[in-house]
Amino acid sequence: MAAPQNHDVSKEKVLGVTRPGIKPDEVLDFYKKWSKEYDKDLDGEEYGGPRKVAQTLAALLGNRRDARVLDVAAGTGLCGQELSSLGFSNLDALDASQDMLDVAKTKNVYKNFLKEFLGPNRLNIEDDTYDGITACGLFCDGHVGPDCLDQLIRVVKPGGFICIGLRETLLHTSENCKTLEPRMEALQSDGLWQRVSREVFPGYCVGFDGVVYVHKVL
Ligand SMILES: C[S@@+](CC[C@H](N)C(=O)[O-])C[C@H]1O[C@@H](n2cnc3c(N)ncnc32)[C@H](O)[C@@H]1O
User: Fold this and answer.
1) Phi, psi of 111 (to 5 degrees)
2) Record's InterPro entries (predicted)?
3) 52 C-alpha vs ligand 1 centroid, how far in Å?
4) By alpha-carbon position, which residue is closest to atom 27 of ligand 1?
5) In tens digits, what is the pLDDT along the chain, a chain of 218 residues?
């Protein structure tokens, strides 16, 4: 368990970079300064989210260890490291922060690195490219909102899975997250994907519970 002092520092950074009203430019500046310390601050004890998201997707992909997976908002590569430790090697990383991607490169678990901004804009990726997506820690203030979901669905093959993890409280407090579930439901009503599971779990990040969703692309 991290020392209480370290826990307080980690929590302050997590709450700082996701504070209500923070702007996307401020978020990227924050990660620029934090990138080298991120893994030290958010070790497995403090941040169980990436492991949970990776394990959840891995269970669905089963024996298909050659499945092509895109880790969106990959950051320093924590989801990719977990997937790699589970035997997956066909992994790409996407993030808006070059500094975070530079750290992710040092992990030697991803094949391709895509510096892309997640939003309503079209991603520079062909339709139906991936068997699965991991998405951990991106839905929060100043980061990513539900307007990116259409693009995530577009780049996943029919039958593929999108696994999303976030801090559960943000569903009620963050402007970017309050509309997440309604948008997920609308996409299901439109026949674009189907909910497979929704699980609330402890130990997501700095003491907060998480929620992990899986949807199957139709
Ligand atoms: C909390 S970190 C999560 C990183 C990694 N998934 C993890 O769980 O450790 C959030 C990441 O989202 C990225 N990010 C924030 N806004 C973004 C956007 N609009 N498009 C793409 N990436 C974004 C940041 O650069 C950062 O690397």
Assistant:
1) -90, -50
2) Methyltransf_25 (IPR041698), SAM-dependent_MTases_sf (IPR029063)
3) 17
4) 75
5) 556 678 999 999 999 999 999 999 999 999 999 999 999 999 888 999 999 999 999 999 999 999 999 999 999 999 999 999 999 999 999 999 999 999 999 999 999 999 999 999 999 999 999 999 999 999 999 999 999 999 999 999 999 999 999 999 999 999 999 999 999 999 999 999 999 999 999 999 999 999 999 999 99
**Domain enclosing residue 162, as ranges:** 4-217
Tokens at residue 86, please? Answer: 């589970």
Number of domains in the chain: 1
From ligand 1's centre to the CA of 95, what distance in Å?
Answer: 6
Using CB distances shorter than 6 Å, the residues near ligand 1 are: 27, 31, 49-50, 73-75, 78-79, 95-97, 100, 117-119, 136-138, 143-144
Per the rule left: phi > 0, alpha: psi between -120 and 50, beta: everything else, 67 is beta
